[in-house]
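Whether sequence alone determines local backbone shape is best considered at the level of individual chains. We regard such an encoding as a compact summary of how the chain folds. The sequence in question and its structure tokens are set out directly beneath this paragraph.
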Amino acid sequence: MAKAASPAPGQWAALADLPEEARQAAMRQRYEEIARLSDNERVAVFSDMTQEEYQLPEDKLLAFTQSRLLVWLALGPEAAQKVAHGYDEAVSRLPASQAMRRVSSVQTVLRNFTSAQVERLDQLIPSITREVPRRPQALTPATKPPRVHKKKRWWKFW
């Protein structure tokens, strides 16, 4: 299998400066290339990419994270699974400060996702949604059981 070279330093993070559509298109192309790599190559490439990604300023990181998650949802099932697991393996090796930024950015971004999107991401990569509070599918108002009135005996006047 041909090895795809890691993006040049700064190239992956530079996608944060692109408009949303262009960023997602570039990410999708890159993820499809990475999905064709072996497991070890995939993790090595993602290790470099995640180091860059979590050096971004907060506002760019949130937009970048949203694009990344939306692209994962748009990938084919097999490619999405490979990409998600390679990415998960790479981020498990991140330093604590970057790992906390990851959790924070994912939680913030997933607030705007639908329940169906969050469920799909949970199927792809459970570790990414583990700390995310779940929205119930439907809320129904609580109802009280009907009150049963017992007839008091006439001599019990109190």
Observations:
- The chain has one domain: 19-129.
